[in-house]
Amino acid sequence: MQFLKSLKPAAATTAVIAALAPKDLDINDPSSIRGVAKTIAGGAMSYYSGTSEKFVDLPEPHYWWQAGALMGSMLDYSHYTGDKTYDQRISRALLAQVGPDFDYMLPTHFGQEGNDDQAFWGFAVMSAAERNFPHPDENVPSWLQLGSNLWNSLTSRWNTTACGGGLLWQIFESNPNGLDYKNTVSNGGLFQISARLARATGNNTYLEWAEKVWDWTEAVGLIDSYGNVYDGASASHNCTDTNPVTFSYSAAIYLYGAAVLADHTGDKKWTQRTERILEASRSFFSPFDNATNIMYEHACEQVFSCNADMRSFKGYFSRFVYGASLFVPSIQPTIDELWHTSALAAAGACSGGADGTTCGQKWYVGGFDGLTGLGEEMCALETIQGLLVGESKPPLKGDEIKVVRTFDSGSKSKRGRYDVRKV
């Protein structure tokens, strides 16, 4: 079978996209990819009842961080497909959750907000900045400034009382277990946001912090010499008791940050680190001989123990690996090998429900497995829409980043009527 290797950059389109059943996906046809993505995006957003005027928390059992993660997925959807249907709802969600200090520290969610939760909102707000996503509220700082404020909040909690540094998983005493655990999602979040701010602004302080976080992660053994990214370690044991569990999204968070720095610095070490993590990430594919190159979350899928968080991890894995290919083209053959097969498997799994388009969890069963939820929709969405990355515009930086106040609905009456300002 011939797989789509790379799509040439194309002019932005505001054409209407025809929704397609995922089972009919043709990964060599960009219009088919867009149509399937539209169908799955609708499924994902069916879990979010917010409007262009009001943010609404996701229903249980989803935590606040997954709302930020969903907005990141939908920012990708808008960027890759050109479909602006959800833009106003995305923008409202991002702006409504900035908190009193404009850093995504929201008192109403302190009971469940950890450093990793804040980081996921940071991933989304950085994507908004890097794409000049519309920001209609003049009373709120720019996307880029919000990202910087969030970064300042994270770095203020760098903890040197044990392990020589690192962020703890949790922030508040209401989550005491996480106050003894330094995890790679929190630290990887700081690393990636530092890398993206370094590239976006050219400020060396961000680069120095990115180096610092990476070096610390390696020094305590949470990234090994093969590129495996482990879950975390206990502060009370001075990070000598590494938890050997690996999750796909933890690896991808570091991988994307390394790819950003490969572009920003030109230093080959970051290219090599990107490649090394991706090679180690082959462990997240091929659960069986008859399911070669199909993605799965090996910590939980086969033993039916994936919680609501884990059921979305493959989506962020795909998001960041596809994005990394724009900066480190050498990983494209691995994407061709692994993600194209997985995208077809994911599409086949999105064949359940009354509409025949509801997505399941386990892509390696050869169809719909009956396990449904927001995470399943997001995983399939990011894995399929990311096929369009080759025709997307890379993240903006420096003077390319502007504040855009008006939404483009695709109509001629609004095109070109942006209030564009430098950040």
From TrEMBL:
It is an enzyme of class 3 (hydrolase). It comes from Chaetomium globosum (strain ATCC 6205 / CBS 148.51 / DSM 1962 / NBRC 6347 / NRRL 1970) (Soil fungus). GO terms for molecular function: mannan endo-1,6-alpha-mannosidase activity. PANTHER family: MANNAN ENDO-1,6-ALPHA-MANNOSIDASE, MANNAN ENDO-1,6-ALPHA-MANNOSIDASE DCW1. One of its GO terms (biological process) is carbohydrate catabolic process. The keyword 4Fe-4S does not apply. This is Mannan endo-1,6-alpha-mannosidase. Keywords: Glycoprotein, Glycosidase, Hydrolase, Signal. It comes from the Eukaryota. Belongs to the glycosyl hydrolase 76 family. It catalyses: Random hydrolysis of (1->6)-alpha-D-mannosidic linkages in unbranched (1->6)-mannans. Its EC number is 3.2.1.101.
